[in-house]
Write a structure and sequence with these properties.
The chain has about 140 residues and is an alpha/beta fold. It has 5 helices and 5 strands, in the order E-H-E-H-H-E-H-E-H-E. Strand 4, helix 5 and strand 5 form a beta-alpha-beta unit.
């Protein structure tokens, strides 16, 4: 299965680890072509790079193309800023893109309890993996 990995770019190192694990499982995994620019940076630096990529390099549209050619998206929703299973605005859009395109949606962890997001994410009917990548099915 071709899987596009979605997450806040502050989780780039985790995204790269999960990409490797998915490939070991026989999947083809993709993430933003800009990912390497984030490796080893602080959270503040990553946020600055993200703004640059979104505003100057059309990063949202770039990843839309990855989602279109994938069979599924995998959302890596780790804890961030005091929010369990955090999903940011851009990742929420990617979930929406995948839903509209009829792609499978996998969340690594349960849907976060974020006002206004929770019901929208649930409506996309994601498969919750409970942290176990082995639960990904074609």
């Amino acid at each position: 299965m071709r899987i596009a990995i979605c997450a806040s770019m502050v989780f780039t190192e985790q995204m790269l680890e999960v990409k490797e694990r998915l490939e070991e499982m026989g999947h083809e995994a993709t993430l933003s072509k800009f990912a390497q620019a984030y490796v080893g940076k602080t959270e503040k630096e990553k946020e600055e790079i993200t703004l640059y990529h979104k505003n100057e390099r059309d990063a949202i549209r770039e990843f839309w193309e990855e989602i279109k050619t994938s069979d599924a998206v995998l959302v890596l929703n780790y804890d961030r800023r005091g929010v369990a299973n955090y999903i940011g605005g851009n990742t929420l859009m990617e979930i929406g893109f995948a839903h509209v395109l009829g792609k499978k949606i996998f969340l690594l962890n349960p849907i976060p309890e974020i006002e206004f997001y929770e019901s929208e994410i649930a409506a996309c009917k994601p498969v919750i993996l409970e942290g176990d990548l082995k639960k990904i099915e074609d």
